[in-house]
Design goal:
Blueprint (H helix, E strand, L loop, with lengths): L3 E2 L5 H15 L8 H14 L3 E7 L6 E11 L10 E10 L8 H15 L2 E5 L7 H6 L21
Parallel strand pairs: 4-5
Antiparallel strand pairs: 1-2, 2-3, 3-4
């Protein structure tokens, strides 16, 4: 099934897929962030030209079974690229009942191709352990490392 570009009407389905993504790391994570996430998706999909999300619809009814989000950020030319934008891919998740059918691969490829069309020559992502083969097959490779500052301590309990 070919992914389509998400619209603001997909905000609830995208938030459910984001929950799947978070639960893969932390099975009992809280749910209080979901209304804000749904509102943010709806707003960004309506207004934010630097973001596109690619989704696969449930084959037998309403809802989504897979997603991948591309976002570009302004960047400055340097020795390795003269591109003025760099891309990032996130929100990659497939409903557990529909895995290993190529849906994530198709959504990530669509997000990457959109970022390239938007002028990106570099696209970053942070792979989960189960996703490294998926990204490697699409041409992603480990490069660079970065440190993160957070405003508040992170709850690392499972
Ligand atoms: C990782 C995830 C997105 C893969 O979704 P999917 O739709 O099943 O992936 P695809 O069918 O497109 O798989 C493409 C390739 O990725 C690799 N792959 C996918 N799932 C894998 C797994 N569990 N273990 C090892 N390799 C895997 C395989 O090489 C696969 O190709 P193949 O089926 O021909 O062998 C899905 O398992 C998921 O939602 N996991 C929880 C959330 C998560 O980890 N998201 C990624 C955040 S970076």
């Amino acid at each position: 099934m070919t992914p389509r570009r998400a619209t603001p009407d997909d905000a609830a389905g995208l938030t459910q897929l984001r929950l799947i993504m978070h639960q893969a790391v932390k099975p009992h994570c809280g749910l209080d962030w979901m209304p804000a996430c749904e509102a943010a998706f709806a707003r960004a999909l309506a207004e934010q030209e630097s973001m596109a999300v690619f989704v696969v619809d449930h084959p037998d009814g309403p809802g989504l079974i897979a997603s991948a989000m591309g976002v570009w950020h302004p960047s400055l030319p340097g020795p390795t690229t003269t591109a003025m934008r760099s891309g990032e891919i996130g929100s990659v998740a497939t409903d557990p009942d529909h895995r290993r059918r190529g849906h994530a691969r198709a959504c990530v490829a669509a997000a990457r191709d959109w970022l390239v069309d938007e002028g990106c020559e570099r696209v970053r992502l942070t792979p989960a352990p189960d996703a490294t083969a998926l990204y490697a097959a699409l041409g992603f490779a480990p490069r660079d490392t970065y440190w993160t500052w957070r405003a508040a301590p992170v709850d690392t309990a499972p």
